[in-house]
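To fix ideas, we reproduce below one chain and its tokenised fold.
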Amino acid sequence: MTLFRPVLAGLLAALLLSPAAEAARPMITDDARIVDERSCQVESWLRREKDRTELWALPGCNVGGVIEFTAGGGHFREPDGLRASDLLVQAKALLRPLKTNDWGASMSAGHVRHRAVAGGAAASDYYVNLPLSLSLRDDQLTAHANIGWLREGASGANRTTWGLAAETQLHPRVGLVTEAFGQLSRDSFYQLGLRFWVVPERVQIDTTYGNRIGRGDQARWFSIGLRLLSPAFLP
């Protein structure tokens, strides 16, 4: 309870106080950045597919300067009417800070718990990911590459994950996101999106369109997100 109160207060103050660093939303490919030291963020979004709706909220905080802890979840409405949910816990460590016209690296590890709200079997996935980022043209273009490992609880399979992405600064408040990602020997996907700073470096909204590569419009999705960042307030 001692830690919860200042965390909550800082998140509510995010609309009003000083700026913090950028992070990944709306990218699925991760970047080599974490939220500023002693600060927090909340990433939330609604994703709509043809027969499926997802709603996510992921609060995260930087504790100790080099590690970002995230804990949150998503709620889903499936085509058959079944409602399900995921719970996610992740730790992300900064290995090499990303600086202007330089490169950076981080590593994340996490656990996702899948469960059906109306019964059904639960399953747990575990993953490790290595994001690398490269700043070009004074941060006007930033490229990202991911390589990772996923252990699927339901099937027991071990899979290699990958992602490639680029962020292009179109305007001080507007950025373009393009990416491709997937798992080796399985389907690959792409996503295009725009992010807009309502309050520079403080309040961001975004929207994306994505689809499976080479499969028409059967797997396409749209998303809209909101991201809030706090000032430094943790002990």
